[in-house]
């Protein structure tokens, strides 16, 4: 075919997708399938990694078939993925030894607290950029090794492989020939040294992780291998954790540029350049991307555990709506939140609080409150949590944001986007291509094979689709945010 196409595997928390893009960054074909969310105990969240791979294979075939494409029509394929989710598998059989521990899983809370007693929650921050928390992969891996009979000995003998979902994808795409991860995903394990971009021996010793289980760390944009099976012959050439992929998809290549992605959780990244900025305000220091042999770029990140998942909870657990998009119409049945605030600390609070003792609350209830107020409070909770992160980010970086580039599943919600602009007192901008996570993975792969020359070439593709300007008075903004902060404080110390 004369057209140039790039494929992107987008393996997320709730579904797996395969998207084909053209050189302009426009979507040519897409196929998507959800996978099961497994909750064995309160606070435990698991996925079946084998199901995820089967779904991914099926979606690749379906998306190609839709447009009559063959693997040979793709110049390369990139991968983006839910990041801290931990997969452990048998190197010989290629089968997972247990369900994957999802990034939301909190079973290692007590383990994180045990480590924090000696040196505090930030004892490893200088090395890894991360606080001690159940969020990251390293402690999840330790838990699997310690709680699966005989597994630690097998791991030390080199029989077992660990990886985040990107490693699992590459392993299966190459028939087990390649065991690797990129710097962005490695930086979320709490096992990688941010300066050397290699596994840190001190962290491996502290977390009791045998090096034999770990994948090789590679740049985010490079030709790693050729795929077999459903993508036979296609170059695997780009890997980015989902939030870093969205940063690339939003072409935030200059220090101070920031994006936010509204998905199951809510994640904001600010590009900080080639120097890692350590946070004093509860944010994460992470690798933004590394293109080929160029120096890595870093970012500050604010991670909110529950955003779109709160809407799913109103749908699935409370039955207030039948489909997620109905939340906006329900919220519009009232003029304001009726002084109702929802703090969705279902698995604790992430940035900038890092309180694993917090739990979700609904505050300000009166007999006046009805379903519309719950819907509005849920949407507003997403925006309030974003402001918490923005304030911390501006404090750490010393940079005042000029605008916030937004993407993800919730950017179609006009009420939320306007309230986000209002509560931030900043413009919020949505790009023409909302699928920036998959696009970022495609960009990384395309750069590696010369479809695009450099980041400037990518920036020429970016166009704004819609812009929301703040309209709220300062008095109202301050009053709403003050009440939100009061509600957040009420959620603390629930778990003792």
Give short descriptive properties of this protein.
496 residues; alpha+beta; 16 helices; seven-stranded mixed β-sheet; six-stranded mixed β-sheet
Could you walk me through the main structural features you see in this protein, from its secondary elements to its overall organization?
This protein has 496 residues and is an alpha+beta fold. It is 33% helix and 23% strand. The strands form seven sheets. The chain has a seven-stranded mixed beta sheet with strand order 17-18-16-15-21-22-23. The chain has a six-stranded mixed beta sheet with strand order 3-2-1-5-14-13, sandwiched between helices. Strands 4-7 form a two-stranded antiparallel sheet. α12 packs across α13.
What is the molecular shape?
globular
* Class per helix and strand makeup: alpha+beta
Strand content: 15-25%
Rounded mean pLDDT score: 94
Q: What is the CA-atom radius of gyration, in angstroms? A: 22 Å
Tell me the number of helical segments per DSSP (H or I, 4 or more residues long): 16
Helix percent reads: 25-40%
Tally the beta strands.
Answer: 23
Span from first to last CA? Answer: 62 Å
What spatial order of strands do you see in the largest sheet? 17-18-16-15-21-22-23
Low-confidence stretches: none
What can be said about the biggest beta sheet?
7 strands, mixed
